[in-house]
Amino acid sequence: MAEISIDAPGKKNLRQQEAELDARASLLDQSTDIDTRESIRIIGRGMKLLRYFWGRFTIKYIMMWGALAAPVMLLPWPVKIIIDHVVLDKPLEEAKNYPVFIRPLIEYMYGYTPWEILVTLVGIAVFMVITIGAFAPESNDTVEAGMEEGHDVATKTDNKVHGGHSFAGGIWGYFEFLLNMRLTQSVNHTLRAQLFEKIKSLPVTTLEDQRIGDAVYRVMYDTPSINYIFYEVINRPLMSTTVFLMAMFTMLSAYPNAPEVVWFAFALFPVYFVLTLPFSRIMRRRGQASRAAGTITTSTIEEGMDNVLAVQSLGGNKQESERFDADSGDSFTRYRHVVLVYIVIGQLMGLAHTLIITAVFFFISSKVITGEMTPGDYGALFFYFAWMRGPATSFSRLWIELQENVAGMRRVFALMDLPSEEDMGSRELPYIQRGVSMRGVGLVYPDGRRALTEINLEANVGQIVALVGPTGAGKTSLAYLIPRFRVASEGEVLIDDVDVNDVTMSSLRSQVTYVFQETQLFSDSIFDNIRFGKPEATLEEVQKVARIAGAHDFVSKLPDGYDTKLGTTSSKLSVGQKQRIAIARGLLRDSRILILDEPTSALDPETEEFLVSSLHEAARDRLVIIIAHRLSTISHADKIVFLEEGHIMEQGSHRELMAREGGHYRNFVNLQTRSG
After folding, report:
1. C-alpha torsion sign, points 538, 539, 544, 545
2. Which CATH class for the 14-75+135-416 domain?
3. Please, is 426 exposed, middle or buried when counting C-beta atoms within 10 Å of its C-beta (0-12, 13-18, 19+)?
4. Helix H or strand E segment including 7
5. Taking the CA of residue 404 as centre, how many other CA atoms within 13 Å lie in the half-sphere pointing to its CB?
6. What pTM does this model have?
7. What's the pLDDT tens digit per position in 540-570?
8. Which H helix or E strand runs over 105?
9. Are 141 and 134 in contact, with CB atoms under 8 Å apart?
10. β-pair partners for 420
């Protein structure tokens, strides 16, 4: 359906606003406007999860069919019996217009008084209430569970994760509800786990472009869309068709001369479908915009909490509150657009339903007035029209309701389809004996910027090699090539003369440990944080590396020592203390190559001197590569590699490089000395 937008001069139309939303929500996912063919493909892809749960799904389907079949086939006939043979006191022997499966009950009660008929029906009703529920308008004849929710995608989809439902009550409904709830949670957990594993497998360079809030929103709030697709694509067409046919054949078996009621109900299918189909693309776009706005709000919360100290120190509380208010308000506005589409569709369908049910009313009433049918027949026919109308409504709304959930599934699959960190090689890297060598290595970023040019380097086990140079010289980019966080555009990166591109990722990174400049600790104990890369490590081993990193003394003074939970006390640790814990974690892994990115940037001079001397001890049986600016850290290195604008300008020891008149490293040191 075409969208018409009349905008004031200079004002962005709805499509431009949504494009800006997509750009703010994710740098990696911009192709959000999909057509019908892509929508069908996404639905089919989501249904592939059925292969993991076909057994439980089949049982759920059978129980759902039973919950719907019982009231369709049985519910109106006791009412008809009571009206015609208890209230109006007609003999059961004269009973007519009953389906064949009710005839045995009628014949069983031949000769019963109205009171005996009523008692018999009450006994049957009690049994049915206990087994499948009451199924009366004033009774809660379903079993379900859900939390209170708002009108935003986040809280509504949370019920899709944990909710359960049964069309029956009683014992039947209870067991179907339990099965449904566990199946729902299992399906969503499977997709969430797959998406989480995918995120962990993305290259470091891709993760740098992915907003954390966006990834969290997709894992938490977009994945529940699978539950709607998983159930409805199979359940609703089959159940709607089955219920419609059961109601139709049951009614026709009792009223073969009233096929018009069936045709009136059947007319709802094409009418509803024609009314809803034009809204398909609008619903997909409104659903995408709503989720993009929710993503932005989540990212705003995450970024605000992560940078709360900067916000407070710069007096930005008001500015941050205004940013959150704007994003949160926009999120609710975008969801209201989704609700508006549903309101328009509902009104159109309501109008069509009113016209058709009016025709049904006149048709059935005329039959009763002329004496062709009894008052009991009036109720039974309207009952079956309602049961045929329900499937028609449900089936016709399926496609339009799928479109909102397709928007969520598209976002999940878009992230899952990003290229994983490629395991380029198939060889297992042998135990490293010699070290790293680079021959004519160059690196160009995906956006075309060149980071490294003609890098030639030898770094051997037993050495401390310092990468030095001004900001932006390419030090981190060079270090990233060794564990293959980035892949060289030219040349060869070799470990013991084996190209890193030829070995498996696991064998490479099992022998290379990278301690990043940004300290990354988990909300767990200090003990578990240090042994994260070596879970089997003992307390003695943890304490040993903590001493080397200069962390043991301050950890021992904490009330809980190594059992201190960082989830509640990390804010009480200084940046330097956190950095020492991260360094200890890297040392414990006992890998053959240890890369430390600015390891002493937050350390006091005494701790720095202790760490540097300890690293010499650690470098006896490994290669230690340090990225650093501080002269006190780099001057004791066995080899200093000075980079500038992506080129290696000089290599050698501190003494050798300082002896070069006008040398790059010497000028770098002199600048530091004069600044000091």
Report:
1. positive
2. mainly alpha
3. exposed
4. none
5. 22
6. 0.72
7. 999 988 888 888 988 998 888 898 888 654 4
8. helix 103-108
9. yes
10. none
Q: Which two tokens stand for residue 292?
A: 């993009």
- Residue 163 near residue 105 (C-beta atoms within 8 A): no
**Closest among 131, 126, 116, 143 to 170, alpha carbons compared:** 131
Of the candidates 332, 303, 331, 329, the one whose C-alpha atom is nearest the C-alpha of residue 316 is 303
Segment 153-190, tens digit of pLDDT: 556 666 777 767 777 888 888 888 888 888 888 888 88
Q: Which residues pair with 267 in a beta bridge?
A: none
- Say how many C-beta atoms besides its own lie within 10 A of residue 148's C-beta: 6
Tell me if residue 416 falls in helix, strand or coil: helix
How distant is the alpha carbon of residue 314 from its chain centre? 34
Cβ contact 184:161 at 8 Å? yes
pLDDT at 675 > cutoff 70: no
User: Three-state DSSP class for 44?
Assistant: helix
Domain with CATH 3.40.50.300 in the chain: 422-511+591-676
Mind listing the pLDDT tens digit for each residue in 75-127? 778 888 888 888 888 888 888 778 888 888 888 888 888 898 889 988 988 88
∠632-598-489 over CA atoms, to 5°?
125
Tokens 């003074």 — which residue? 557
Record the tokens describing residue 639, joined without a space: 């080899």
pLDDT, averaged across the chain: 82
| Cα end-to-end span (Å), the chain | 69
> pLDDT digits over 616-628, tens only?
777 788 899 999 8
What's the CATH architecture for 422-511+591-676?
Answer: 3-Layer(aba) Sandwich (3.40)
**CA dihedral sign, ordered 650, 654, 656, 660:** positive
Q: Which helix (H) or strand (E) holds 495?
A: strand 490-495
Distance CA 99, CA 253 (A): 5
β-strand pairing of 512-515 with 593-597: parallel
Specify the domain boundaries for CATH 1.20.1560.10 within the chain.
Answer: 14-75+135-416
